[in-house]
Amino acid sequence: MDHTMLGRRTALAVVTSLATGITALVADPAAAQSDFPSRPIKMMVPFTAGGGTDILARALATKMSENVKQSVVVENRPGGNTLLATQVLARSPADGYTLLMQTNNLASNPTLYGAKAGFDTVRDLAPVSLVAGNPHVLVVTPSLPARTLKDYLELGRASPERITYGSAGSGTVNHLAAEQLAMLAGVKLLHVPYKGSGSVMPDLLSGQLNSLVAAMPNVRQHIEAGRLRALAVTTLKRFPGLPDVPTVAESGYPGFDFQSWFGVVAPGGTPPAIITRLNSEIRKALADPGVMERLGNYVVYASSPEQFSEFLGRQIEASARLIKTLGVTVD
To answer: What domains sit in the chain, N to C, each tagged with a CATH number?
Structure first.
């Protein structure tokens, strides 16, 4: 297989999916005519606290709470590559009071687990809104003698599995991005899965783990403080906040492009009027200048439920092709 072409096809799928059907932040649609919400809403995060998904969910929940005059409570439910929280959501009453902030795992898990997942993504879940995305960056501990992506890959090529890299779990962006890079470069890296990006950080910062393809919000402060060294950004364009860090694409792997996306889902069968109201409140919160400032490491999107549903369908197909090509399996 032409690995460069694989990278280009992957990049095209991701860029097309993120660019198609995502609207700019505009005026809210008409809110559903009901008394919803009349009690607190729970928004689950399928990872440990402190990671990129958690940061985004808490920023959104805080503003939504102010706007709807009801508490939107974030609850961390890590486990099973996000399956645990998603199973809980699928079994919850379809009344809009239990939500889940999901990410790329929502698209990769159908291929990784199939019927073993315990739910049907299309039948048992109701897309509410695509919320945001963020770039990733390959970081290493300062003790690793690699100052460029080329150095990093040469170390891996010279000593197979000498370099360890963490992930938030099998099939996550951290995992798939590192595996595709390793395949394109012809190196063997050692994968160490965790239950979320927040759980990875202590081992990475202590040097027990060599590297991580990390979401920007999780590591930018550590890069700027010199606790981690940034080697390459995984998106096609450089990240404005780290303009001196090259992209993987410009470092010898044209077309390489990975980033996280985040969206809110509800239980399948939730009434359309409630989905519309939730979508309206999410869009309103995301348009707030204070929230936008807090999410400076993200690209903020706003979509209709229908657009998110179409986007998810494309992501499931693209993830299935990539997972099968890379031979990724669940640890």
So the answer is: 3-134+259-326 (3.40.190.150), 135-251 (3.40.190.10)
